[in-house]
Batch of 2 targets.
Target 1
Amino acid sequence: EENQVRYSQAITTANGLWNNGSMGTLTVNAGTAPDGTTTASTWVPNVGTGGRYFYTNNLPASSDRIERLHVHSIYMKANGYNFGMLMSYDADGSGYDYVIVDLTDGSIDASGGNDGGDSLLRFSSVSVGNGWYRVQIACTNQFSYLSCGCTNSASGHSGVVPSFTADGTSGIYVWGAQSELDRSYSSQYTPTTDTTIVKYQPK
């Protein structure tokens, strides 16, 4: 088991490990999560037009921000907007990969990246019941940011950034973020609090 994301269920800016970039509001304990607890967060983009997303501040040390295989995953559910977006992008802004999922049926509506040295290997969306989907993206870009957002349509983005006219009340539910190194598939979700869980490395 491994999870490089701290506070994987407490997706809120209050703990200082999630950042809304002044682009919307994260509200923790706002809905029923896949495990039946009231620990799901809502993401509601600010009213207006432009990029709308949030991301984790769980950055590794600068020396560890190298291009290497990793997989990000998060649980999403529609809450006014039906399209969720999961992204992996470099701390220096040189590259990104993304996937957009239709949260009404779990289908993949868009995916891609740029030419900054990234490699989008695979992506998927798996239903876990009650309208929730576990979305994952595996790539070999710089291991740094896990980012997430929502759009009002499959085309409501500009590259890696969700970009559309938000109404200020609609959004998505999110829960259970996870990042794992040297894997192309997400393992079973393992929750974290103030420390990460690093997989055992035999000597």
Note: DSSP finds no helices and 15 strands in the chain.
Target 2
Amino acid sequence: EKGVPDPGYQAIASLIVPQLKPIVLLSDLLDRGADPIIYQLFLADLIITYAIQDGKRLSYLTEAQLTRWGVSEYAVHEQAIINLRQRSADVPYQVTGSGSQQLVIFNHNDGLDAARILLPGMLVQATRSIPGEILIGIPNRDFMIMFSDDDPDRVSAVALQITRDMRQQPHGLSEKLFTDRKSTRLNSSHANISYAVFCLKK
């Protein structure tokens, strides 16, 4: 920030976290004349940004800061994932139902719930008892839900709620369902549901 002494990268490295944001954030920042932030493309019109999280406050890292520090975007990403993993080690999550009706929900409200989609090992562990293909919803920053594609009616109901939450809750992200492979059930039974494929491996 202008007028604030720069503490240097090493002083803030442990505070860096990844944040998923809609890609329209980039044009919003440009319109406001803000410094360009660093980011990576994710999926479904989302980007991964990087921020210094100090309590409830987030300060997004900019290209100018990385240039000044002599640090690469790759190094920042790696550090952010390490910090996210550490902050997620003891985070509780809710499990309701069983079998194809089971839901796994992250709603810790620490500003990192949706970002935990970037921790595949954690997701695999949390969903180990869910049958079928795993579907993931991140309607807003503070909510992530995982469930099975086994029950078409269940998928439709959860997808509808995800769409509502994305549009109504603060910090909306995506109405898409994320999965680690193309689901034949989604292709055949849910042509109206939009989903994105990403890599979910340890």
Note: The chain is about 30% helix and 25% strand.
